[in-house]
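@channel sequence for tomorrow's demo:
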Amino acid sequence: MRTEDELVVVELPDPTSPYDHVVEELLPEPPPSKPPLATGAEEPWLHVVKGRMRLYYYRGDRLEREYPIAIGANGGQKRRVGDNRTPVGSFSVQQIQDSRKWTYDFGDGNGPIRGAYGPWFIRLRTPGWKGIGIHGTHDPDSIGTMVTQGCVRLLNEDLQELKEKVFVGMAVLITER
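structure tokens (generated this afternoon):
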């Protein structure tokens, strides 16, 4: 067992698992009582807390919904392309794309997987980084793990619900805690 950025992780006993490690215990604290992002009284925004493996949907300073997520396979701040880290900072929604027909080859011998990103890809404007977004998954068991190449991954049904609430230009804050 080892600690990474306040997460307790354990090595998986199954060597055939596609995940390097899973979260054994998340930080016990509730969501922030005072949101760290100043917005209008009723303006909606998102807060991704990597250390809690949660995405919080706020309307102003009122928490309305939270979702379990998966994040980058490596902890800490994104430093370079391909480092499999989820960037930390203040971002915004750049585009909402239908990704149902998109494919991705995970290099596991199964070839390209259609629907690997779930039904939607909520692309974030992340200066300095391309291709970072919030998307679904073809593998629901990956939620709650550190497995992505830097994106935030949700269950498809949660993504579908969230997609109805987000809009281009919406503020997105990603923090460690």
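heads up for whoever presents: The longest strand covers residues 89-98.
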